[in-house]
Design a protein that fits this description.
This protein has 322 residues and is an alpha+beta fold. The protein is elongated, with a radius of gyration of 22 Å. It is built from five helices and 14 strands. The strands form two sheets. Strands 1, 2, 3, 4, 5, 8, 9, 10, 11, 12, 13 and 14 form a twelve-stranded mixed sheet that branches. Strands 6-7 form a two-stranded antiparallel sheet. The chain starts with a strand and ends in a 6-residue tail after the last helix.
């Protein structure tokens, strides 16, 4: 059976698509249940500083991934139906920071690509040596929801890359929520942008009053994706109440004392990686090794204009994927 016809949207994907459904309204306030009395009673919440005598681990691994939409596409099915899709490239990498030697190096990186669509008959697209295997998405496959479908294979790539370079005693820091990486040992999820406010006003006041290099007590988010969590303020000049604040999380499968030990470890480790405003507009939250890794990974994705042109040519040749 022949595959459907595939047409590449003429718009540069960085501007979105020429046809896109109207996005939904703003997200509702978080109703997540929180257990704030993991480390301290809620009435005794206070800023916590570095534990005396605790040293950072000798090796810290920082993991990140990037993704890019190379083209928006549409299928023309044999029954007259049409499905949107995206041709996406993504990459994951690990920076190995040897704190003893004061050196950082790229320890591993991998690139993946895919054609993400709900089309039941879409086939792999080949552009010379570059392949876009089909990733079939569930549901109706609205165009606005397709970029989120790239996250699962990107996360799997991050896990594979980090597994290949881990050693005993290292600390793994994942840029973003842990998601499917919750089973990895000695691993922190690093959330640098705060979209939801999980704590009540009194506990939030403790967070916004943190000094540079201080953290909040550990609390637990009572959701299927939640776990042990805490806030930390990176070195930052005076600014807004949330300036320099990041949220950390670790596996909910850990005993509370192990989560607290990781929180203490994060406090003597992460501030040394904070970026400076004159170098990075996302300072200090965008950690220096992560910023360098992102640049390296984007380079590995290839030239977006050439790939867009190649996809256009490939889908015109013979009227569809090959």
């Amino acid at each position: 059976m022949n595959g459907p016809q595939l047409f590449v949207d003429a718009w540069d994907p960085s501007y979105g698509a020429s046809f896109e459904a109207t996005p939904g309204g703003p997200a509702a306030p978080s109703s997540t249940q929180v257990d704030a009395e993991v480390e301290l009673p809620a009435a005794d919440w206070r800023a916590i500083g570095p534990r005396p005598g605790l040293a950072a681990p000798d090796v810290v691994l920082l993991v990140d991934g990037v993704r890019r939409i190379d083209a928006s596409v549409w299928t023309a099915e044999e029954d007259g139906a049409s499905y949107p899709g995206i041709a996406a490239s993504y990459a994951a990498g690990v920076v190995r920071c040897d704190l003893e030697r004061g050196a950082a190096e790229l320890a591993g990186a991998r690139v993946g690509r895919g054609l993400f669509t709900a089309s039941p008959s879409a086939q792999e697209v080949r552009c010379g040596q570059v392949r876009y295997p089909v990733h079939r998405v569930g549901g109706t496959g609205e165009l606005s929801k397709l970029p989120a479908a790239v996250q699962a294979p990107l996360t799997a790539l991050e896990v594979a890359v980090s597994d290949a370079v881990r050693t005993d005693g290292d600390l793994l820091v994942v840029d973003g929520p842990l998601r499917a990486r919750r089973q990895l040992p000695r691993t922190l999820g690093y959330i640098k942008t705060q979209h939801s406010q999980y704590l009540d006003a009194r506990l939030t006041a403790v967070v916004t009053a943190l000094g540079s290099g201080q953290r909040s007590p550990v609390f637990r988010l009572g959701t299927s994706w939640g776990g042990w969590s805490w806030y930390l303020r990176l070195p930052v000049a005076a600014g807004s109440p949330w300036a320099g604040i990041v949220r950390l999380e670790c596996s909910p499968d850990l005993p509370p004392q192990e989560a607290i030990a990781l929180a203490d470890l994060s406090l003597v480790t992460l501030p040394r990686f904070a970026s400076s405003p004159y170098k990075d507009p996302r300072a200090p939250q965008n950690l220096v090794p992560i910023a360098g890794l992102e640049r390296r990974l984007r380079g590995l994705l290839g030239d977006a204009r050439l790939l867009h042109r190649a996809l256009t040519t490939a889908t015109r040749s013979g009227g569809g994927p090959r």
